[in-house]
Structure prediction request, 232 residues.
Amino acid sequence: AQSVTQPDIHITVSEGASLELRCNYSYGATPYLFWYVQSPGQGLQLLLKYFSGDTLVQGIKGFEAEFKRSQSSFNLRKPSVHWSDAAEYFCAVVGISNTGKLIFGQGTTLQVKP
Amino acid sequence: GAGVSQSPSNKVTEKGKDVELRCDPISGHTALYWYRQSLGQGLEFLIYFQGNSAPDKSGLPSDRFSAERTGGSVSTLTIQRTQQEDSAVYLCASRTTGGVGSGANVLTFGAGSRLTVL
Prediction:
């Protein structure tokens, strides 16, 4: 069965520091992968996606993610975190039925210290 | 509309009452999804509608949960005889038709309906 694991439930970084959020997936074929962000009281906003091609994908708000098939990973990175990046981040994979149904990780809450 | 609209944004109800949550997807989006977000459970898929096809109800947690989509647009999620464990944020999402691999074909989420069962 497909699954997504985000090993870090909570991460705290200082403003201006770099960030990496980890995501590992379990999927039998080439995955479609996503990162979403959720600010308090808001819905989910798409940060970036990977379908095929270049394994380093750029997203909004200065985020990027790298697909590594050998490690079954799709880690999210940002070189310099801003206080407004404090939110919950979800990694997701499209389920094998290919209906577009997303399977989400448990989420990582990012706290940014001034 | 410009985005996925959900109502009510907040709902407080008493245990045993029925509730209805509404989702108005982006105009032209034929696929619609309901998810539940609760503490400790993450985001759980509930149900999926695609055009006139039979819905995928595989994620509904019990027969107290049901959903319909009228006219291929607005969807209503109904929870009968609510229980305290039903307290959660219910998220709706929609997307266009076409292959999932399309560059534009991603789920757009609404802001959610927060349900509190006392």
